[in-house]
Amino acid sequence: AGFWKYLFGKAFVFDHHDVNPELFEAKFGKRGAFHKLMLKLERWTFRTCDVSIATNQTFKDIAVQRGGMDPARVFIVRSIPDLTRFKRIAPNAALKNGRKHLVGYVGIMGAQDGVDLLLKAMADLVHTQGRDDVQCAIVGSGTELANLKRLASELKLDDYVTFTGFQSGQPLLASFSAFDIGVIPDPKNVYNDKISMNKAFEYMALGIPFVQFDLGEGRKIAGDAALYAADNCPKSLAQRLGTLLDDDALRARLRDTG
């Protein structure tokens, strides 16, 4: 982008939506030469651009501290649902599979997204705690989908977990509207601590109480509208889900706070 700026004399606006050095570290568990290259490219981008758009305060801090930008040239613009269109509709009740409660997840399913932790938490709820009143709906797609379906079978959860595939528009809103509890299972790491999860805004916009791990930006966004599980631990996640399932007043308080 800097090349085109200097070739044509145009202003360069950088829309900063990912922290790629942190994503590399979270996915591959290391830094090394490629991580250093990504940091250098990031720094060049910030120093070349005229304005940077940051998705949250953490991203702005990166632009200023790591990229050397003037804070006055970095603007926070959040990505949130359009409340004129994003609202509850008639729920897809079939997702409950005849059970009392529906725990739901919506999003991409990559190796770093923690959906395997949600499945392990469901196994704890069903097989360790002996609950047969909770169903899980996993909405979305991604590179890990086949592995997650395989894991669900290995955990003997085929009757307790529904994979809907990718959804948008009215089918997506009908799924959201059926959720009693939302989940953000993304594990705490150098990447997830810094990003703003669309799911958090979506759950709060629709009045869905939810559980997540204690992520830096996640807590800033949700505050008291969520419960927080500890240490990327499926058992802790299951415990927090169980607490929320059994406490109508707590669910109502989190819903209203969101």
Describe the protein.
The chain has 258 residues and is of the alpha/beta class. Helices cover 44% and strands 16% of the residues. It has eleven helices and nine strands. The strands form two sheets. Strands 6-5-4-7-8-9 form a six-stranded parallel beta sheet, with helices on both faces. A three-stranded parallel beta sheet has the order 1-2-3, covered by helices on one side. β8 (210-213), α9 and β9 form a beta-alpha-beta unit. The longest helix is centred in the first third of the chain and has 17 residues, at 32-48.
In short:
The chain has eleven helices and nine strands. The chain has helices at residues 2-8, 20-28, 32-48, 57-66, 115-128, 145-154, 169-178, 198-205, 216-222, 234-245, 248-257; strands spanning 13-16, 51-54, 74-76, 101-106, 134-139, 161-165, 181-184, 210-213, 226-229.
